[in-house]
Amino acid sequence: MFRPLLFVLALLCLLVTPTRAGAEARPSRADLQRVLELHARSVVRVRGPQHAGPGIIVGADGQVLTAVAHVGPQSAQVEHAGNALTARVVLSSTVLQVAVVAGPQGAWPAAPVRLVPEGLAGRWVVGVTPGGKGRRDTPRAAKAKAAPAPFFDVPLTLAPGSPLYDGDGRLVAVVVERRGKAVRALPLSAVKAELASADAP
């Protein structure tokens, strides 16, 4: 019954890349450009019955991580490469405010992933502010701040469902809530733990 969850959990583990040793410096201009390129390749739009917003491809077979508000009880539309595809809900957590949907099988450009079990507070993360009206998308770095576990806060203005990256362009978290001029985000390690608990007998 929970095989899709097992698959996504295994996928998150396979996509994890090693961390850099030592303290992390503020992402450089080259780091920000790398994030922007990866972001443009792997971000999609997810549309549910009432709301729509960004999501990020986390599985080469079409798994997308987004905010729970963007999905319906069983399905959502994923807009990618000019196509609107029906995706079924694999995980929907109102407590964590995240969802994972699975689109049709195919070759999807999944983002590289980094799990940070010790948390992200005090670390640099990068979000991409959408352009509009002729403006380009802009990558911005900010330091994550402590929030009630397992969440953290970031002084960036992003929509729920937006991905957050480390300086190497690896996905580390997803935005779940706007809070004034900042956002609350959930680290991927918490998503992995939720998938594992949902899969437990």
Automatic annotation (TrEMBL):
BP-aspect Gene Ontology terms: proteolysis
Record bears the keyword Hydrolase: yes
InterPro entries associated with the record: Peptidase_S1_PA (IPR009003)
This protein's record includes keyword Hydrolase: yes
Gene Ontology MF term list: peptidase activity
Signal peptide positions (record): 1-23
Protein name: Serine protease
Organism: Corallococcus praedator
Protein keywords: Hydrolase, Protease, Signal
